[in-house]
Amino acid sequence: MRRALFLDRDGVINVDQAYVYRREDFEFMPGVFDLVRAARATAHAVVVVTNQAGIGRGMYTEDEFQSLTAWMCSAFAEQGAAIDRVYHCPTHPTAGIGAYRVDSPMRKPGPGMLLLARDELGLDLAASTLLGDKLSDVQAGLAAGVGRNLLLGTPVAVPAGVRVVPDLASAQRWLESTGATR
After folding, report:
1. 98-117 pLDDT per residue, tens
2. Residues of the domain holding 60
3. I need a labelling partner for 35 at 20 to 30 A (CA). Which of 11, 78, 97, 158 fits?
4. What total of structural domains would you count in the chain?
5. Which residues pair with 152 in a beta bridge?
6. Is 10 one of the annotated active-site residues of the chain?
Protein backbone atom coordinates (compact mmCIF):
# COMPACT_ATOMS: atom_id res chain seq x y z
CA MET A 1 0.00 0.00 0.00
CA ARG A 2 1.12 3.52 -0.79
CA ARG A 3 0.89 6.64 1.31
CA ALA A 4 -0.67 9.81 -0.02
CA LEU A 5 -0.71 13.54 0.37
CA PHE A 6 -4.38 14.59 0.38
CA LEU A 7 -5.04 18.23 -0.49
CA ASP A 8 -8.17 20.29 -0.26
CA ARG A 9 -8.59 22.54 -3.32
CA ASP A 10 -10.00 25.98 -2.45
CA GLY A 11 -7.73 27.58 0.13
CA VAL A 12 -4.88 25.06 -0.30
CA ILE A 13 -4.26 24.63 -4.02
CA ASN A 14 -5.85 27.92 -5.05
CA VAL A 15 -6.77 31.12 -3.28
CA ASP A 16 -10.30 30.67 -1.93
CA GLN A 17 -12.40 33.23 -3.74
CA ALA A 18 -15.71 31.42 -3.12
CA TYR A 19 -17.02 29.02 -5.74
CA VAL A 20 -14.14 29.16 -8.19
CA TYR A 21 -15.01 27.43 -11.46
CA ARG A 22 -13.34 29.60 -14.14
CA ARG A 23 -9.66 29.79 -15.03
CA GLU A 24 -9.63 33.58 -14.80
CA ASP A 25 -10.64 33.32 -11.12
CA PHE A 26 -8.15 30.56 -10.27
CA GLU A 27 -4.96 31.73 -8.53
CA PHE A 28 -2.48 29.08 -7.36
CA MET A 29 -1.35 29.35 -3.75
CA PRO A 30 2.33 30.20 -3.25
CA GLY A 31 4.39 27.04 -2.68
CA VAL A 32 1.78 24.52 -3.84
CA PHE A 33 3.89 23.19 -6.72
CA ASP A 34 6.93 22.78 -4.44
CA LEU A 35 4.85 20.91 -1.88
CA VAL A 36 3.47 18.52 -4.50
CA ARG A 37 6.92 17.98 -6.07
CA ALA A 38 8.28 17.07 -2.62
CA ALA A 39 5.51 14.51 -2.17
CA ARG A 40 6.00 13.10 -5.69
CA ALA A 41 9.76 12.82 -5.15
CA THR A 42 9.10 10.34 -2.36
CA ALA A 43 6.52 8.25 -4.23
CA HIS A 44 3.47 9.67 -2.47
CA ALA A 45 0.22 9.63 -4.38
CA VAL A 46 -1.19 13.16 -4.56
CA VAL A 47 -4.95 13.26 -4.22
CA VAL A 48 -7.29 16.25 -4.19
CA VAL A 49 -10.46 15.94 -2.08
CA THR A 50 -12.80 18.89 -2.49
CA ASN A 51 -16.35 19.83 -1.56
CA GLN A 52 -17.94 21.54 -4.56
CA ALA A 53 -21.35 22.63 -3.30
CA GLY A 54 -21.45 25.30 -6.01
CA ILE A 55 -22.49 22.51 -8.37
CA GLY A 56 -25.29 21.42 -6.06
CA ARG A 57 -26.40 25.01 -5.54
CA GLY A 58 -26.67 25.51 -9.31
CA MET A 59 -23.85 28.09 -9.49
CA TYR A 60 -21.85 26.07 -12.04
CA THR A 61 -22.06 22.70 -13.74
CA GLU A 62 -20.20 19.42 -13.42
CA ASP A 63 -18.79 20.07 -16.91
CA GLU A 64 -17.44 23.47 -15.85
CA PHE A 65 -15.86 21.90 -12.76
CA GLN A 66 -14.33 19.07 -14.83
CA SER A 67 -12.95 21.52 -17.40
CA LEU A 68 -11.26 23.61 -14.70
CA THR A 69 -9.97 20.45 -13.01
CA ALA A 70 -8.39 19.18 -16.26
CA TRP A 71 -6.70 22.57 -16.74
CA MET A 72 -5.50 22.61 -13.10
CA CYS A 73 -4.08 19.08 -13.38
CA SER A 74 -2.27 20.01 -16.60
CA ALA A 75 -0.70 23.02 -14.86
CA PHE A 76 0.57 20.70 -12.10
CA ALA A 77 1.93 18.20 -14.63
CA GLU A 78 3.75 21.00 -16.48
CA GLN A 79 5.40 21.93 -13.16
CA GLY A 80 6.60 18.35 -12.58
CA ALA A 81 4.02 17.98 -9.82
CA ALA A 82 1.41 15.57 -11.18
CA ILE A 83 -1.83 14.93 -9.33
CA ASP A 84 -2.95 11.30 -9.24
CA ARG A 85 -6.67 11.84 -8.77
CA VAL A 86 -9.27 14.47 -7.92
CA TYR A 87 -12.37 13.53 -5.92
CA HIS A 88 -15.21 15.98 -5.42
CA CYS A 89 -18.56 16.07 -3.68
CA PRO A 90 -21.15 18.30 -5.39
CA THR A 91 -23.88 17.92 -2.76
CA HIS A 92 -25.05 20.15 0.08
CA PRO A 93 -27.38 18.90 2.84
CA THR A 94 -29.54 22.05 2.99
CA ALA A 95 -28.75 24.30 0.02
CA GLY A 96 -28.46 21.67 -2.71
CA ILE A 97 -31.02 21.70 -5.49
CA GLY A 98 -32.97 18.55 -6.37
CA ALA A 99 -30.84 15.40 -6.24
CA TYR A 100 -27.93 17.49 -4.93
CA ARG A 101 -29.76 18.16 -1.64
CA VAL A 102 -28.47 15.21 0.33
CA ASP A 103 -26.34 14.65 3.41
CA SER A 104 -23.66 12.61 1.66
CA PRO A 105 -20.85 10.77 3.47
CA MET A 106 -18.63 11.97 0.61
CA ARG A 107 -18.98 15.59 1.74
CA LYS A 108 -16.31 16.62 4.22
CA PRO A 109 -16.31 16.37 7.23
CA GLY A 110 -17.47 12.90 6.19
CA PRO A 111 -14.64 10.53 5.29
CA GLY A 112 -16.18 9.20 2.06
CA MET A 113 -13.81 10.72 -0.51
CA LEU A 114 -10.77 9.61 1.47
CA LEU A 115 -12.09 6.07 1.89
CA LEU A 116 -12.93 5.88 -1.82
CA ALA A 117 -9.41 7.03 -2.69
CA ARG A 118 -8.00 4.41 -0.32
CA ASP A 119 -9.98 1.67 -2.04
CA GLU A 120 -9.43 2.81 -5.62
CA LEU A 121 -5.75 3.71 -5.31
CA GLY A 122 -4.62 1.20 -2.67
CA LEU A 123 -3.59 3.84 -0.13
CA ASP A 124 -2.38 3.43 3.43
CA LEU A 125 -4.35 6.15 5.23
CA ALA A 126 -2.47 5.75 8.52
CA ALA A 127 0.80 6.58 6.72
CA SER A 128 -0.76 9.47 4.77
CA THR A 129 -1.06 13.22 5.31
CA LEU A 130 -4.01 15.53 4.74
CA LEU A 131 -3.68 19.30 4.34
CA GLY A 132 -6.80 21.44 4.50
CA ASP A 133 -7.77 24.96 5.38
CA LYS A 134 -11.05 24.25 7.21
CA LEU A 135 -11.88 22.19 10.26
CA SER A 136 -14.16 20.04 8.09
CA ASP A 137 -11.10 19.00 6.07
CA VAL A 138 -9.13 17.72 9.05
CA GLN A 139 -12.25 16.24 10.63
CA ALA A 140 -12.63 14.13 7.47
CA GLY A 141 -8.99 13.08 7.78
CA LEU A 142 -9.41 12.09 11.40
CA ALA A 143 -12.63 10.19 10.64
CA ALA A 144 -10.91 8.27 7.84
CA GLY A 145 -7.86 7.41 9.96
CA VAL A 146 -5.37 9.63 8.11
CA GLY A 147 -2.19 9.60 10.20
CA ARG A 148 -1.15 13.26 9.81
CA ASN A 149 -3.67 16.08 9.57
CA LEU A 150 -2.51 19.63 8.92
CA LEU A 151 -4.68 22.74 9.09
CA LEU A 152 -3.47 25.68 7.02
CA GLY A 153 -3.97 29.09 8.60
CA THR A 154 -3.72 30.91 11.88
CA PRO A 155 -3.79 28.99 15.15
CA VAL A 156 -7.29 28.05 16.27
CA ALA A 157 -8.73 25.50 18.66
CA VAL A 158 -8.22 22.24 16.81
CA PRO A 159 -9.00 18.61 17.59
CA ALA A 160 -6.27 16.41 19.02
CA GLY A 161 -4.06 15.02 16.30
CA VAL A 162 -4.21 18.16 14.13
CA ARG A 163 -1.28 20.50 13.59
CA VAL A 164 -1.73 24.10 12.40
CA VAL A 165 0.73 25.40 9.78
CA PRO A 166 0.80 29.05 8.66
CA ASP A 167 1.60 28.46 4.97
CA LEU A 168 2.44 25.79 2.40
CA ALA A 169 6.19 26.22 2.82
CA SER A 170 5.77 25.46 6.53
CA ALA A 171 3.66 22.41 5.70
CA GLN A 172 6.40 21.17 3.39
CA ARG A 173 9.12 21.77 6.02
CA TRP A 174 7.04 20.00 8.66
CA LEU A 175 6.48 17.01 6.38
CA GLU A 176 10.18 16.79 5.64
CA SER A 177 11.19 17.15 9.31
CA THR A 178 8.82 14.40 10.46
CA GLY A 179 9.95 11.97 7.81
CA ALA A 180 6.56 12.01 6.12
CA THR A 181 8.21 12.65 2.75
CA ARG A 182 11.13 10.26 3.13
Report:
1. 999 999 999 999 999 999 99
2. 4-178
3. 158
4. 1
5. 165
6. yes
